[in-house]
């Protein structure tokens, strides 16, 4: 198995790169989706969140009210750290199980684990390669405004609440520049896939 950690700031093109690698045959795991799964009704993580933040963070159907919880933690660093201390270990455990499952099903699998908070959450899976998508702050804000309908102040706050581009680049083995045309991003993802195929062929021969 070959495990890739894919990270990057909000609106930095992670999903585009992940989809391209998936199209080449990679197994794609999305940390955001896993974070939703670990707080479904009946999970220990949801029970811990309710114990910490109260019943008000639940919707009438028992699902987590993510918007309400977001309002509580977005401007409160201590509350956000408490939430992360509940959710991040649960996500890490689930990701570990799914990575092991992918390997059991295909020992040659290439697994792309898409982790927006790879730096912030100190995710420590044994990655063979860490790939960072980078668009630059101005481009990220522009995309959030134009594509997701945020106002500029909101967009800047979302970008600035995450790790900086420099912090991400410091852990990167590969940086994919997504600030230009979509075709340029795709060609870099294709080159990355070619590199992985070549590395694994060389290892098999060696």
Automatic annotation (TrEMBL):
- Does the keyword field hold Nucleotide-binding? yes
InterPro entries xref list: Depp_CoAkinase, P-loop_NTPase
Q: Does the keyword Protein biosynthesis apply?
A: no
Q: Which reaction does it catalyse?
A: 3'-dephospho-CoA + ATP = ADP + CoA + H(+)
| Tree of life domain | Bacteria
Q: What does it do?
A: Catalyzes the phosphorylation of the 3'-hydroxyl group of dephosphocoenzyme A to form coenzyme A.
Full protein name: Dephospho-CoA kinase
Record the organism: Agromyces protaetiae
The taxonomy runs: Bacteria, Bacillati, Actinomycetota, Actinomycetes, Micrococcales
Q: Which gene encodes it?
A: coaE
């Amino acid at each position: 198995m070959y495990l890739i950690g894919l990270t990057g700031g909000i609106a930095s093109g992670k999903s585009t790169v992940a989809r391209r690698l998936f199209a080449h045959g990679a197994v794609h795991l999305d940390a955001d989706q896993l974070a939703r799964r670990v707080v479904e009704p009946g999970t220990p993580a949801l029970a811990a969140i309710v114990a910490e933040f109260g019943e008000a963070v639940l919707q009438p159907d028992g699902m987590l009210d993510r918007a309400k919880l977001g309002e509580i933690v977005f401007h409160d660093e201590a509350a956000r750290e408490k939430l992360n201390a509940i959710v991040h270990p649960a996500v890490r455990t689930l990701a570990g199980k799914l990575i092991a499952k992918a390997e059991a099903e295909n020992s040659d699998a290439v697994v792309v684990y898409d982790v927006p908070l790879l730096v912030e959450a100190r995710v420590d899976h044994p990655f063979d390669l860490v790939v960072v998508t980078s668009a630059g702050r101005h481009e990220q804000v522009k995309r959030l405004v134009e594509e997701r309908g945020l106002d500029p102040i909101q967009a800047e706050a979302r970008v600035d609440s995450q790790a900086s581009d420099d912090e991400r680049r410091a852990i990167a083995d590969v940086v994919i520049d997504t600030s230009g045309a979509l075709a340029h991003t795709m060609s870099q993802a294709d080159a990355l896939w070619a590199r992985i195929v070549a590395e694994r062929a060389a290892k098999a021969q060696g």
